[in-house]
Fold each of these.
Amino acid sequence: MISKLLVQLKKHKFTTGIALLLVASIGYWSFGNLLSDEDVVSYAVAQVQKGMLIKSISGTGQVLASDQADIKPKVPGQLTELYIAHDQEVKAGQLLAIIDTRAAQRAVNETEISLESAKIDLEELLSPPDALSLLQAQNAFAQAEHDLRIAKRNYESADEDVERTLAKAYEDGYSDVSTLFFKLPDYMEDLKDVLGTKEYEQKHITSYRIILGENPPLVQQFINDYYYHANNFYQTTLRYFEGVFRDNSHQEIYKLINDALKTTQAISRALESARHIYDAITTKGYHQYFTSASVDRMKQNLESDLFSIYPLIASLQNALDTIDDIVENTPDKILDAELALRSAEEKVTARKLALEELEAGEDSLTIRTQQNVVAQKEASLINAKSELADHYIYAPLDGVIAQISPNIRKGDNVSSGSVLAILITKQQIAEITLNEIDIVQIKAGQKVTLTFDAIPDLTLTGRVTEVSVLGSASQGIVTYAIKIGFDTQYELLKTAMTVTASIVTEAKPDALLVPNSAIKSQGGISYVEMVVGSDLSLVASADFSRITLKNSTRQQQVEIGLSNDEYTEIVRGLQEGDVIVTRTFQPSTGQTQQSSSLRFPGMGGGGRGGFSGTRLH
């Protein structure tokens, strides 16, 4: 079949050639239309080149004066002189205003007079003492010694008087206790008789119950609350009394007197309770009972006991009060005498020192004190002159009067700290703000490019001079201020003009660079698509903005370094001059896989390319 076909073709060589030529022409025409820009994949490409990669951070702010100062008085008063005008140029130290100086000048004059007087006193002290002054100092010392002797006698006498008085009080108190214990046994014996007899201790209690009723309250109260309580006090105090003598310590005697007083008071209360019993029996009638004689006798004894015991209680209480009063007031009396003695001793010391210093001459304490007085007066004069100087207001720096407070005129009263005018320097700076993310990359000394909205054609350079460490938060955003010094000053710039600053944070020279749109990544690996083979010659003569390749691109893994908004540094994987794809155009739809229309200069076709913030070579 094939051989027959070949034979036929040989017979019709010319015809076949024409047919093949026609087919080829149609195919070429069809294929050409098929591969038009709209129907096939096309590419934007770029050439890998070396250049300076610059990374910067931009921000906006205002033009400021490099320094400014508020012109304000340090003291209040009337503005007697005013030497300023708007836009006036002034020099540092130039007099600008005067506040009424009359009171301050008067203070200076008075202080100078006081200082002169103190210096005269010092000169007199430095001169040798005269005979009269020396005699007066000797007499004053002798009088002080005499006063000291009297104070010592008074102090010793006061102490001895107190000791005698206190000793007598303890002696009288002990005597009262001794007298008391001659009578207390009788009182206790009468209390026992209220209960019964020696043969039968509660013999009378039975009679009381018959007369007053079973378990009469007065009897129970006497027995339970008074008699046994008094008896216990008596027995305890008696034992303590038997072991304490007149020559015992004051503390022991005081306790004895106090215990004796409590015992006597307890016995008196028991005697009163017993008398209440007999008063109740008397109201009931008792003469028909066999105990009537005993009741009459006991009632009389109780009355006698109560009559005699109260003076004893008063005597003991008086003894304690006397001791307490002496002990309480003695420290004050002794202290007064002691203070008088110390005062006399100090007076002697002072008079003696004064005499010695007078005799010693220049080394005396008085001279040193007066020297201090002179020094204080000199310091006061310096302060007075400083306060007078505060009434004169001078320019703190070279500059221009940028603003004067309204309605400020000569003769007005002003307060300290009130702003009269604002002085600014001619030298200008820029101040911008950056957020907390960008600020960490900024430091003093970094280069800056500045542009100005009001002067579009003006571009200045400068450097970062100050980075604020204090942030300012507003609506959840934290910003930091940056000050930028100009390399050159421009006279048309005004304060408060808007400025845009681009701060160079990093610059890398001779870096191998590709557009950011050329970088792709997959699985954490970065790569580019390279133009290879015969397409390289096509690229040399084609427009880089959009070309059609005959061969497939090759994926080339790369290691990337520094990058900015447009370009990325290639650390490894490419060489200078390699051609890479920066954007892919899909058929018909016009969609692209990358988005960059940037072109390098010198790579065929029209257009002008370059790196924004990047220099190529």
Note: Residues 1-36, 594-612 have pLDDT under 50 and may be disordered.
Amino acid sequence: MRVTTSKSKNSESFYIPKSYTNAEGKSTSTTIKKLGTLAELSERLGTNRDGVMAWAKEQARIETEKYKKETEDAVVTIPFHSNRLMDYNRKKLFTGGYLFLQTVYYGLKMDSICRKIRYRYKFKYDLNAILSDLIYTRVLEPSSKTSSFKAAQQFLEAPTYELHDIYRALSVLAKESDFIQSEVYKNSFFLGNRNDKVLYYDCTNYYFEINYNDTDLVDEEGNIIEKGYRKRGPEKNHRPDPIIEMGLLMDSTNIPISFDLFPGNESEKLSLLPITRKTKSNCNLGRIVVVADRGLNTSDNIFFLSGRNHSSNLDGYIYGQSVRGADAEFKEWVLKQDDYIEELVKNDDGSPETFRQMIFEDNVFKGYEKKNVVFKHKSRIYPKELNVTIDKNSKKKTKVKTDQKQMVYYSQKYADKQKRDRNLMIERAKDLIKNPQKYNRITANGSAAYVNNIKFDKSTGAIADGLNLSLKLDKIAEEEKYDGYYSIVTSELDMTDQELRNKYRGLAKIEETFKITKSELNTRPVLVWTKEHIESHFLTCFVALVITRLLEKKLNNKYSIHKIIDSLKKYNTINIEHDLCIQNYSDEIIKDLGKIFNIDFSRKYLTLSEIKKIFFSD
């Protein structure tokens, strides 16, 4: 509490007011004590105005302590009037979970980023308010931009902008996407350490609920000026809708660094080099080692990332390597057993890591048996021959050689999985051979690879009539030889096999991250259609992803993203009467967040002014 004064023509009076937030969310105050006039107090205290003010401030301090003591265990009495009418158009329920996201948002200095952008434009709307609300609603109530605007009305601080301002802001956000990504990365160091020496990269796609492809923008000579994003391409769930591809770079702490978009019909193999170069430049990164799956393992991605041979001033790579698709020399080396090393894999506490091994008799599954995980591995330095595209304007390839560490390991667990998956396809293939009329090009996907002489009608996709279908026994026998073997290749010639395997296994986290964007953040289907709006949609999803990952990290990875978001969705505040609110949900996650942000959530009743002071104070 503080001291205020009011002056009239002949006197000056001293008061102690108490500030609070009313039911409409506006700050106001009420006088709790009148101390007297200057003349009265000067005569009583025997001092001048400075002495009176010092005494008044002490009274305010005493009243503040008295108020705190009274409210520590206060009994709240709410008068009940049976004939009281409803308060029309008065907001009672407030979404509260966004307040925790807000602490991370401002920890990333997003308001400062928005101010820098505003200096470059002449818009009048509040970009920071729009961007923050789009991010909060993407986490708590993901939907269209219109629905997000409506959802933000339930926040303690409702939007003061209009819906049309959101769409205007989307165009600005798209233009500033690279700048925002780089600033978010740099500012994230204020919230904790990052490990940007080893980066993980992968691609995924998101669909649009439309039945046509975007057209490319071309000049008078037919040269492409701008490619359309929404194109039909390989989609994991075999949807016929146009898709867009997204490439994501993530650090070793599972926090995204940058993303990029490219048309749905383009190969992901072409995306790695552009995004790594752009990210290194925008984020001022030093030497990096990029970890990616075998789909990105191409001659160009090896050569242009790490050069002809490993050098300290060049970047590095760790890629998965197909064993079944490798050349004969590599396969022969894999199957040679006399130089493998076998080591027990141990947990952090030193105990042996175990798995359930599948038991088969006469190719029939009988059950599981508990086994220790054995890391059976070997490696070599090999002069890898690459066919590199030196001239982008020419299809001619240039042969070069570079030293590469090649590591192969055997996993019984992986072998069981491959055997199980193949057996499912073989059973379907047998049924396809017996009943070809039940299948078409789509439903036969996977199993058709094990059938000889299969052909599909180009117009209907059905299996053609009169074919002599049979099982590819040679293919099955060839695949069985390599069950359980997996290879990883790298430019890091001094890296141990164990370290190489551990770093590569981190790719599982980027797969998990993609699942979060599609399930928790509902990034798909994409509900905007212009190029700029599509780019800004993915930008807000990206920042939302960074914030949730940082929140997960602050909680020491104790809870999954799903559980964290679920708790945030449930945490709401109900305004009972006047300034008084009841906190209607709490759990272990909310309690832990309170400890992290030094917020006391043990009290069931709080005032609106107290809530705002907790979250909105600097």
Note: The chain has 19 helices and 22 strands.
Amino acid sequence: MPRMKLFSVSLAALAAATLATPALANHHEEAEMAQAEYPMTPQGAADWVAMVEQTMFDYTVRASQVYWVNATYITTDTDALAAQVGAEGTEMSVNYALEAAKYAEIDGLDPEVKRKLDMLRNGIVLPAPTADGAATELNEIATSLNSQYGKGKGTLNGEEINGSDIEAEMGNLERTPEEYAEMWASWHTNVGAPMKEDYARMVEIANEGAVELGFDNVGTMWRSGYDMPPEEFSGELERMWQEVAPLYQSLHTYVRSKLNEKYGDDIQPATGPIRADLLGNMWAQEWGNIYPLVAPAGAGDIGYDLTELIEEKGYSEVDMVRVGEQFFSSLGFEPLPYTFYERSMFTKPADREVVCHASAWDIDNKDDIRIKMCIKRNADDFITIHHELGHNYYQRAYKEQDFLHLNGANDGFHEAIGDMIALSITPEYLVQIDMLEREDVPGADKDIGLLLRQAMDKVAFLPFGLLVDKWRWGVFDGSITPADYNTAWHDLKREYQGITPPVERPADAFDPGAKYHIPGNTPYTRYFLARILQFQFYKAACDAAGWEGPLHRCSFYGNEEVGEKLNAMLEMGASKPWPDALEAFTGTREMSGKAMVEYFAPLKAWLDEQNAGKPSGW
């Protein structure tokens, strides 16, 4: 699953993490004082933004230290400190957003000041209106939705089962279709349905808040963070989807035929949509768990096992990190500071509770970069280390930018950089770093299995990555009413993913609520963008390195020219509209799925051969 990172405790990160209950009485007094000191003039707005950036810079350094201690030393006290610093940051971000909305209306603003005011205005995920009690109500609903999801349970053979266990069991190939259907239906009914009224009320309140900040609705506000009009951005997403849709359709047709072979027509017909519970994942968003059911004959053995290579080398957990660092050094990047090795958490401490979920941190917005992981000496963590370091090198590259520009060029860029680095762990790279013998590089006959394994996650995810916010934007703009919440959700899942529920769903159900990011109010488009961009970045690097073989086998290890071009994009942070950053590295100003299509071209040709004579589409 795409992972959220704490890049820096930026305004957006804070606002996404918690909801605001602004101290409105104080806010009015502060606002009056601010306007006396920073008048409603272009210069006053510029001075106010400079003050905000300095205040937030100082705050995030302190907050990052607290969050780090909390994540690496979980106690009642560090929880309390983190909650305190979170509430402080949220209140700050809401007050600044309300003020920014006023300054944004001044005529003659410097374009950069205007862009920063917009960043402050749409830095809150769910804006509360200033009406008495509205912020408190919104905060209570959002907290309750989060907690309802966390406590959610489904059933398996009539026995209660919690969220993480049910996710694992959905990917267990020993289960029967009846068991999958029971888990799917019980989870969606038990978790989603009770949230529906609260969710509709939350949408109502947050939309009022968005209007106060100068937006039509929350959906428009979310889409306004992409340096183009919201409707134009929606069109761009649809264009990218159309570029990759034929690849998805070929994968869908092939997987459906394999499921039909396994389960028969009564469970999975040979035509039409795929039954949602048969794809190894509660939301049918990634299908890697059922790879053994669809693997081509003889694809299992690729000639080497990365976990075994790590063992043969005798690499410790820290050695694995140093191999990752060497990847970046070979591109010409400066070595990591000694504090990185001194302060990061690489392994799970034996004496205390920690958050093991891998993440990349930038504590002081300058050089104090760290990763937090409970590294195991295996292939998955070797790849994850490369991914997390991608975030760290990005953070360090843009450290000279203004505070509001200490971020990726858009919210898809940061994840995409991490994923692009992970794509680079090819057999060729393993030969270059002396982990694999040249004669053990798998032959072309193994490519299809390798590509299919990747596609089951990376390609299968695309339509889901698109439809989550497509549904939400419809909810926010009123084109999807509460009465139609469920029907619209399943219509979109059928239209884009070609999947259908295993059982009839009542119209008053609330199945979207069974996906964490809906009650958690986490925007989702970033994950779709990251999937597309990682291949675009990877191809740009391979082209710059003069790679001539199949794209999926490329390695640009040791190529300083690639490093120079990559750094030109990274060091811009969010200081320029994202097309400028994209152009610095790829030479184009348009995000595109074409590189992904090229990467998987050998697989697409093979899938189409397998699918010959079979019905496609749904």
Note: Residues 1-25 have pLDDT under 50 and may be disordered.
Amino acid sequence: MKAPARNDKIRNIAIIAHVDHGKTTLVDAMFRQSGVFREGQEVAERVMDSMDLERERGITISAKNCAVHWNGVKINIIDTPGHADFGGEVERAISMADGALLLVDASEGPLPQTRFVLKKALESGLRVIVVINKIDRKDARPQEVLDEILDLFIDLEASDDQLEFPLLYAIGRDGTAQKTLEEKGENLQVLFDLILKELPAPAYDPAEPFQMLVSDLGYSDYLGRLAIGKIVNGAVKSNDQLVRIAENGSQPALKVTRLQTYDGIKVVPVDAAEPGDIIVLAGADEVMIGDTICNRESPKALPRINVDEPTVSMRFAINTSPFAGREGKFVQSSKIRERLTKETLRNVSIQVEEGENRDSFIVKGRGEFQMSILIEQMRREGFELSVGRPEVIYRYKDGVRQEPIEHVYIDCEEQFMGVITEKLSIRRGRMVNLVNNGRGRVRMEFSAPSRALIGFRDEFLTDTKGTGILNSLFDGYDDYRGDFPTRFTGSIVCDRQGEAVAYAIFNLEPRGRLFVVPGDKVYEGMVVGEHNKDRDIDVNVCKEKKLSNMRAAGKDDNILLTPVRPMTLEEAIHFIRDDELVEITPLTIRLRKIVLDGLERHRNKGSELKAQREGS
């Protein structure tokens, strides 16, 4: 068989790393040393994390592409998210790459998301360069980490060629790389040279016409939907007349209205693109991921890539509280629908369906963290909305209900092993592995339902006093494992509209943990605290002290209230029950009952109990 031609002027590499292993910092150094930024140019740190939320949380949320030039060769760098909730982007990123850079922390070693992305890369037959980063850490253990990486490659059934991986040690923050631990690195030249030498150039068939596999989608307010992908064969020019082969085999025509490629962190317009390059193509309005864009004269479809199905859904609705419209700019359902629809164009792992009424929507995604990021983005854009508790998406196979299962990896101190095991067992988790190295820390692996992890991460950090590490990977569907309690406490619910008063709050503190401070505006049906017992109670937080003419020593002592820690968006979403909502505005996060009227709630509760008695 004739060997394919290769475009030696291009390299396409995917960067694989777990959260906080230094991927974005290393790419920063690659930019600086390859001349993307001119000398003296002021550049923010972690330029690849361009969103405010990415900078605040120190994680990559949306995978981005960029390009650097070294010795006349263009290196397209394909970012992969380091958090499992955004893993829907991984397979698409791998489909554009011809090689991979595996970045591993010299102390923590390979962690679950590293495993997940590396498995996809090895299955695709990619050649991998291993970079052990942060070797300047005090607790660095590069030799042990190298052994762990080798074990991981063997465990993932890497080929003999993949097992003979090139190895570098790096300090990403300083922008240095070296071949051995003994030598002192000065810059990243050794890394650039290794990429050009070890990672293959993109292959193509010179006899084939233009073919491009759509691996990602973008959206521009001016150009509409953008198709992003690698040119597998042939070349393309601006204004070319092409066709798109859809999933159902149809072949709608399209015209290339604009052709762009990556240069540094920007996208620049070009007149033509070569085989192997990654391009952004405008002009295909109905394009979907996995479609093939090809020559009109001889259309040939490439093997499709698929996006993982969502596992979690949440109900988004307009804000119907008495305080609706006071703080937000966008409050109408039409504005929320428009914003969610735009999100589906930018983010293919999000799906939106109409709810039971015209003012609500069902949003599906890969995890509750992905959902909370979307809600936080909307909140910062000026939206007011209310959201329900995250729910897992069930499947039915031969009439049997199945639920999504997660493989949970836990690293914690030995003293916390008991409480973590007990809590996950209550939530239908099963321990599948336990490693105790005798150094005071243990590594545990559990198989647990996805719904067991909703709200568990906050508890986990509290139980391990902030020293535990929890990661999880989607592990397919399995038979429903049974019910378990999501919360052992009830809610303290306000019974009237007004302002919270210190006297009332002080007298309610023995009942549980309160969420409001004196002066906070409240309304009937608003959840103002967490009850110590497992039932809800209606209270009056607006009650003032009765004044009389009688005075006695000590009666008017200054009231000292327990400080209230503001609830974050994630904590609020995890806290609520099925009959509660989170009210989100640009300035405030409140909890409330779906049914605000207290009498109506009591009637509904009585009807439910009556129906249960009759059913039993």
Note: The chain has a mean pLDDT of 83.
